[in-house]
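Hi V.,

Quick status before I head out on leave. The structure for the redesign project is tokenized and pasted below; the design run finished overnight.
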């Protein structure tokens, strides 16, 4: 059986958490019950990722398109995020977890926005493990934002590094692996620039059911791939 190579653990893993609503519907539960179970999965997978040696973990929690959902569901999602941050605030600090965000969080409810800013500031010097949360995030908006920032700075000859410096993820490495749950096989506006050389892994498992076993399976698949980054593999002599 193929075992995980501890020396080839993906440094940064991005996760598109999909399937909360379908998970709930399958159980004749309201959609918010699925989102609540999704938060439990987030905790579970975060702990598993750190145990396995992953250093950076990015979650797609709420997209720029998700505002189109019913207000009750949107408010419920924000309440769950707020509750999760409050309950784990001290643990983030104690366990030296750095919390970062990507997306225009200024558009979020004031209490959630203020807590996100606070926890980000309190944990900004932690480097052992980073959890990056996409809230009101869309990669196309991020790219346009970066372009406008460079225009405002009077930049004319823009380098790739100039552009990277304006992304929400400027302090992170590009994701080595992106996982999407629930069977959909698309990025859905998630880290489009950063994922240029990411390995993509799709599973039919709904996000609330995703656990350490599923994460290990994704890592095994990642480690079985030949990552050349456009180069030609050299034959061994």
């Amino acid at each position: 059986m193929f075992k995980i190579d501890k020396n080839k653990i993906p440094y940064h893993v991005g996760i598109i958490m999909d399937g909360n609503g379908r998970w709930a519907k399958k159980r004749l539960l309201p959609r918010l019950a699925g989102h609540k179970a999704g938060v439990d999965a987030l905790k579970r997978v975060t702990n598993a990722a750190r145990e396995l040696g992953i250093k950076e973990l990015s979650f797609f929690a709420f997209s720029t398109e998700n505002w189109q959902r019913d207000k009750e569901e949107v408010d419920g999602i924000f309440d769950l995020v707020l509750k999760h941050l409050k309950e784990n605030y001290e643990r983030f600090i104690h366990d030296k977890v750095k919390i970062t965000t990507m997306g225009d969080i200024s558009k979020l409810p004031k209490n959630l926005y203020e807590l996100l800013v606070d926890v980000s500031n309190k944990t900004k010097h932690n480097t052992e493990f980073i959890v990056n949360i996409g809230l009101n995030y869309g990669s196309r908006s991020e790219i346009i934002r970066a372009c406008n920032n460079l225009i405002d700075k009077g930049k004319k000859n823009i380098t790739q590094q100039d552009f990277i410096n304006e992304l929400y993820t400027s302090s992170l490495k590009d994701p080595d692996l992106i996982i999407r749950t629930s069977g959909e096989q698309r990025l859905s506006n998630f880290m489009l620039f950063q994922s240029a050389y990411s390995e993509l892994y799709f599973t039919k498992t709904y996000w609330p059911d995703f656990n350490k076993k599923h994460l290990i399976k994704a890592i095994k698949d990642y480690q079985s791939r030949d990552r050349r980054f456009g180069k030609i593999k050299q034959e061994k002599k």
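Above is the designed sequence. The longest helix spans residues 71-94.

G. will cover questions while I'm gone.

Best,
W.
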